[in-house]
Amino acid sequence: MSDPLRLTVLGSATPYPEVGNPCSGYLVEGGGARIWLDAGTGTLGELRRYTRLDELDAIWISHLHADHSADLLTAYYGARHAGLTLPAPIPLFGPPGIADRLAHFLTNSAVRSPIESAFAVTELHDGHTAEVGGLHLTTRAVSHGMPAFAVRIRSDTASLVYSGDTGPCANLTALAGGCGTLLCEADWPEVPAGEDPVHHTPEQAGETAAAAGAGRLIVTHVGPFLTPEDAVSRASARFAGPVDYAAPRRVFTLP
Fold this sequence. Notes:
single chain, alpha/beta, 7-stranded mixed beta sheet, 14 strands
């Protein structure tokens, strides 16, 4: 029997870290692989509770807002200057332009910082697929007003879909079709009048899970004007399956 798919919450706060809760970041383990899923502010320190940078098999970034990607900057220093010996640059899957964005911030002279010495960058696109150890990753573009992606991670025993940041959209529902677990953002207490949705409300997270036929919903990225309890309760009103909150340091073993 293969090892189970396991999700560890490194942080789930937005738009900046809370005391005891970093921004968005998760460790997914299964199929003999470890993937750091989003690298929001403060998540690198939490990641080190469970694994080291030189033990990662991949990093996957949903979009380039700081609360999902800022700790890539310090991960670069860790990979190059912390006494680690990387067997090879860490595979980094991220939105178009991610390498140049990192280099622009990290370069302090006429010589571009050698981002590629730490990260083997692959730019995501709608429909991108990859194999990481025994895990299969499928990426879809989602609706966040900028290049942004959701991912389905499948082992031979379980499937996890992570929404990244997005409003409800057909690509996310299709990607999550029949998944065992949907990890879905629930940022907005309500949809602002006159704005195109770029986040879910808790009710919309429940509706997406129900429309996709997901087995389980975990709400994350709960905005500062909601409590986790409110988010779970409101999502549960639209989804009949089990609903949990992505509390920091919580570990989910996925069926």
